[in-house]
Design goal:
This protein is α/β, with parallel strands linked by helices. It has two domains: 3-153, 3-Layer(aba) Sandwich (Rossmann fold), CATH 3.40.50; 164-429, Aldolase class I (TIM Barrel, Alpha-Beta Barrel), CATH 3.20.20. It is built from 15 helices and 15 strands. A seven-stranded mixed beta sheet has the order 2-1-3-4-5-6-7, sandwiched between helices. β11, α10 and β12 form a beta-alpha-beta unit. The protein is globular and about 60 Å long. The two termini are 40 Å apart. The relative contact order is 0.11.
Length: 440
């Protein structure tokens, strides 16, 4: 029906998580399933220069260019739109991603034709591509704002959300894993991947009922979780391991152990084989138990990441009740993980309302004492973003910088994120290398 480029425009990323890049490939797969000819380009991760980007646009002759966006990935956005207009003038431009879902009005400044602002990303782009096939698009669409001349037409209603069985999982053949490997190689950056081993991301779930106000997941994907079946999960891992030498699995899910029955079934299947990968996940502390952690370790889990946020009592009042964790509860979890042979990785938010630099330092000390990995980010009040902000102002909402300048106070905050850490992971030593395809 249409020739479509699904692209993450060139920019310098402030952080890398391969899981955040899966919507690029899932959107492409969804569009292919609807009959479109689709190419993908993860320009930032692949390190593409602007000449290479221009070659792609000029030679591609695309009908639609679907541009992925994110909170801090807007520094190259305006330039990409210019290149697309100049070198592929017949293409319609639509954007989708986390930033347009949280702050859609920001994109009215760009010469775009449509903006996906609610619902699953792939359904919004598909609605627009489908409408284009029928002629000029002169109204909004479900979850999609559409430009007609100088006028923006609002969405006709909320965007669609797909049941998990309708997700099209990424085609591993088109993902630039060599580039991903290089981005994960230096653990001092505190990125989520495991250095020296190749990661297969499995997008296992969307949505989260925990509903932290500093997290975009509930606002974009809803409070009700949607999750792949165990059969579909295992089949995807098997097929992917047969295609490429992956060495561990990263489950991309907001709260991986939310459905304990599902996790137990998956673990039992891993234990029984023949699909038995090493793997990691992220979850919350209340959704773990000693029995479950032990089972996960037996089933090949090498790292559990938890949203600890803070151990400072005065800072926990702004957290959902499920996230208010006492020090002894965390120490107990650390003991469970150590017994199971699992690395514990703790997400800590520096600058959370009610917290202090001294409190963050104390939280870091507890993590070091328990052997847990300290993964700091800066508090980001996403609700404070406005459409009128400049790209530079928006780029502050990247969980590395404070959303507004703090002056001398920022020195203490930034010491946690940029001050260095001599406690680097060694968990890769627990993951065997694979030199060729086949399930290990």
């Amino acid at each position: 029906m249409a020739k479509i480029l699904v692209v993450w425009p060139p920019h310098v990323p402030s952080y890398f998580n391969a899981g955040h890049h899966t919507p690029l490939y899932m959107t492409a797969g969804h569009l292919r399933a609807e009959g479109h000819e689709v190419e993908t380009c993860d320009a930032s991760a692949a390190g593409l220069n602007w000449k290479a980007m221009g070659d792609l646009l000029y030679q591609g002759a695309y009908d639609v260019i679907a541009m992925m966006n994110d909170f801090d990935a807007v520094d190259g956005f305006e330039r990409f739109v210019l290149y697309a207009q100049e070198l592929c003038p017949g293409a319609r431009l639509i954007t989708f991603g986390r930033l347009s879902s949280m702050n859609p009005g920001f994109f009215a400044r760009y010469a775009l034709d449509a903006v996906v602002q609610s619902g699953d990303y792939e359904t919004g782009v598909a609605h627009y591509a489908r409408a284009l096939a029928e002629g000029p698009v002169t109204t909004g669409l479900p979850g999609v704002t559409v430009r007609e001349g100088d006028r923006w037409h609002p969405p006709t209603g909320p965007g669609d959300t797909l049941p998990a069985e309708q997700w099209v999982l990424p085609e591993v053949d088109e993902i630039p894993y060599d580039s991903y490997d290089r981005l994960y190689a230096d653990d001092a950056h505190k990125f989520c991947g495991i250095p020296f081993r190749r990661e297969l991301v499995v997008p296992a779930a969307r949505g989260c009922p925990v509903n932290c106000d500093f997290c975009e997941v509930p606002a974009i994907f809803g409070l009700r979780e949607r999750r792949l079946s165990v059969d579909a999960t295992i089949d995807y891992i098997r097929r992917s391991y047969e295609k490429a030498p992956f060495e561990y699995v990263a489950f991309y899910a907001p709260t991986f152990t939310l459905d304990r029955r599902w996790v137990k079934e998956l673990c039992q299947r891993f234990i029984e084989g023949p699909v038995s990968p090493q793997w990691k996940c992220a979850t919350t502390i209340p959704h773990l138990s000693e029995e479950l952690v032990a089972l996960m370790g037996e089933a090949g889990c090498v790292r559990i990441s938890v949203g600890l946020e803070t151990l400072e009592p005065d800072g926990q009042g702004t957290l959902p009740r499920a996230k208010r964790i006492e020090e002894e509860r965390f120490r107990e979890l650390a003991r469970w993980c150590e017994a199971a042979g699992i690395e514990l990785n703790a997400f800590v938010i520096v600058g959370l309302p009610g917290t202090t630099a001294a409190g963050a330092a104390r939280t870091r000390e507890v993590l070091r004492d328990t052997g847990a990995r300290f993964r700091p980010t800066v508090y980001t009040p996403l609700h404070e973003m406005t459409p009128a902000m400049t790209p530079l102002e928006i780029s502050r909402f990247n969980r590395q910088l404070t959303s507004a300048p703090l002056g001398a106070e920022s020195t203490e905050v930034y010491d946690f994120v940029f001050g260095g850490d001599d406690r680097l992971t060694s968990v890769y030593k627990n993951i065997p290398r694979r030199l060729s395809g086949g399930v290990s």
